[in-house]
Amino acid sequence: MNIDTKFKLNEVVKEHEVSTEWEYQKTSELLYKFFDIFDKHFFENKLPLGLIVFEIKNKKTLGSYTIAHNGFGAKDEITFNIRHINRPKFKLLSTLLHEMLHLYENRFREDDGTKYTNHHNKFFREKSKEFGIPSNHRGQTLEIINPFLDLVKKHGIDIEEKEIETEVISAKSKMKKWSCKCMNIRSAKEVDATCNNCGQNFEMAF
Q1: Is residue 112 part of a domain?
Q2: Average pLDDT per run of 10 along the chain, which is 206 residues long?
């Protein structure tokens, strides 16, 4: 049997998701539209098309990126937890960009001799901050700011000011403890600093 070498499974699935009348048709349209917008704006049109999937996952999970091939051989699966699918559109889109950054790092980061593990390492955290969706080392979005907000507004996403709040971390858990050798401090945002007294970088204390 002849196989068309130009056949792209993710492209066929995309066409099916956005053209079929089903529960997540409109959400699929939104996410695939912004996949292209984010790819152009943040990733220089380098990304292969992600496969957008909707599943029930752990309630603490908003979305995920699958490093390897999924159960039917497709790559670059971006899964949205349907427990949280009714969040405001800009928050869904912040999750999309977060997972696209995992895709980018998996496919394009320079080889530094370490295996890519989907962790929220320094590279990931710096890039997410640059994009306007700063993340901590656990993958929690600390806030949603520009340039992300300006970009989605430019492309028709309405956002009420009261909605622009911490994405994942509740008010009870905003303040985290960070430690060097000689002191502890508390901060709602990630601390990227060196203590002037002992010279050690501040690390999150558990």
Answers
A1: yes
A2: 56 96 98 98 96 94 91 91 96 97 87 65 93 92 95 95 60 60 71 75 67
